[in-house]
Design brief:
By secondary structure, the protein is mainly alpha-helical. It contains three helices and no strands. It folds into two domains: 55 residues; 35 residues.
Length: 91
């Protein structure tokens, strides 16, 4: 049993790199990059809203907020079926 675990850790992955530990390390590193980029994206979104709140009148800013809400809802509903169809078509 121990030999199988050692062998699994030392086996190269499909990309030609190290073993399972290397894949785990690369997955964690990639996940951290995605998390960091999402935080940066959210930060720029908040900054954009602050700038627009200063430039627009309250009624215009409210109208923009309603429009952004509707676009977000429509985007959510339009993407849910597309991804499932894409995966089933490729498979």
């Amino acid at each position: 049993m121990k030999e199988e675990k050692k062998r699994a850790k030392s086996m190269p992955d499909a990309a030609g790199g190290g073993g399972v530990e290397e894949v785990k390390r690369r997955a964690v590193k990639g996940g951290m990059w995605v998390l960091g980029l999402r935080f940066i994206e959210r930060g720029f979104g908040v900054l954009r809203l602050i700038i627009l709140a200063r430039l627009l009148s309250p009624s215009d800013f409210g109208l923009m907020g309603i429009a952004m809400l509707m676009m977000g809802v429509l985007n959510t509903f339009s993407q849910t079926g597309f991804q499932a169809v894409l995966v089933s078509t490729i498979s």
